[in-house]
Amino acid sequence: MEISISGPKDFYLSIYHIAQEAREKGLVFYGAGFWGDLSAQIFSLLGVEPSCFCDDDPEKIGRFYNDRIPILSFEESKRRFSNAVWIATVNSDTVDAPRKRLNRKLRENGLLSAASGFHPVRYLYLLEEAGILEAVKTETDESPDRFHARALRKLVILNHMANSGCVYFDNLVDGHPDLLNIVLLGHYIPLQEVYQKRLQFLEDEPLVAEVASQMSPYLQTRFPEKLYEKMFFRAAQHYLVNDQGEPENRVYLPVKAFVRHLSAELMGKGRISYAYLLKAIFAAYYNTLGRKYDASRNYWIFYQRHKENYNMQEIAGLLSPGDFDAVKYIFIVREPIQHFFSWMNRFVLRAPHDTRLLFGRANSYLNRLRCGMGLMLQNRSGVPKDDVRVVRFEDVKQKHRGVMDAFCHWLGIEYDSILEQTTVNGIQIYFPVAGKTGAVITGNDQSAVNKKDYSELLSEFDIVRLKIVFQQFSHAYQYACDVPDFRSFAKSFREELFDYPFRFEQTLDEACAMAYAVEGDARGDEPRCGRLIRRLFSEYMDGYEDVEYYPILVPEDV
């Protein structure tokens, strides 16, 4: 299969393109272990065999893979196959992982290329069942009870403040017959970014293969879950459990069936728009579930974008006027002091190593503080306010029926009692309790909104100062806020207000130092979080202008 390559070259476009390049130049797997073996199996499906394996272990050098493919030293592999496609076949994409070290060595030796971005864990789905690639074919099925991408004409996008209940809200809407939902889709897959970098340049088999590779977190697997943990967060292993606290594996889809339904929506369509990609994924997902399309229903795609400080123009710029008949946005927010404490406590103070590395970076914690200022909810985007609603996490928990009734009314669909349960694909889901093996809570548990003791991370003075900064957001969304208007303060007083460190700064600084050390930077070069945070607050208050905020979704009286 000959494939013409166009588009960005900073990352491979598809496994088909790598296979084509490997046929022309040769293929070297750097790592003759478990993942090297799986990589060889994956490429064999495309008729490609590695020129050699390369390894740093003296005990492996000189042996043969499958009795015919040599395992060579790095130096010998480079001498013989310097123009080949080189791929580091080890798992894990964390910043301190072996893959990063091997790729650094490839880069230093001029062997790293766009094709080196291939990661075998993304393509394990090809090994799940025999004949999966054969399921990628043009298939016409005009059955009236089948979901088709072209028939999905309405889109509602959920976004959030981070750790503000978006997973909970996502699970609530899941079972409604008019809401087509793939729980946590935007949380697991940066679909918009992948489309812009890769998928928009693909068509037919390469397009189907790469979209399916992105959907691996939702597909059944025979491989141990630990193989995925560093690259993919398998939904049921982290969030979606049964009443015993065990992963709810019934939510996963059969691989070949999903690929077949996805092929029916993508094959023969050429290069597709972002809108069509969304529609095709949702249509394939619901056809795989065996759901029946009903032309009399008022279907909405419910898509969780999952991005802090979301700019609605990001997706609007990818949509054409005829793509959807309606596009709406809903944001879930949380009382800002409780929100700030919650994510700091969960993702920094008590977080595992890899999570602390991520949230210790300045752009991460500054983004979450910007959420508390409500910058994403200021009506500056040009999106009509009738198309945007803001729902309070506390209302969803405490006025559940009224909020969901108002949400349905806003979309023009009927309320359904399934909205009173947290489900995935219609299966009842519970949430694991952090630090308590086997313990679960229901979605309607109230403990998350009753937290009032923040002293571990915030002093009383810290709380007052944060309330001052977050007050415009608080007033807009009817949260109690008993502090003076910061616009009445002199500039010198505002500056003096933030001369004193926050109690949480040491915790953030430690996480930041750890992240910088892992990246190889000298300790002491990392930015001090207090200075960055105080500058953020000062610039916000100095430049604040009165602006309209998008309207709140008021719970219906029920």
UniProtKB/TrEMBL annotation:
InterPro entries in the record: P-loop_NTPase (IPR027417), SAM-dependent_MTases_sf (IPR029063)
Domain of life: Bacteria
Protein name: Sulfotransferase family protein
Organism expressing this protein natively: Anaerotruncus colihominis
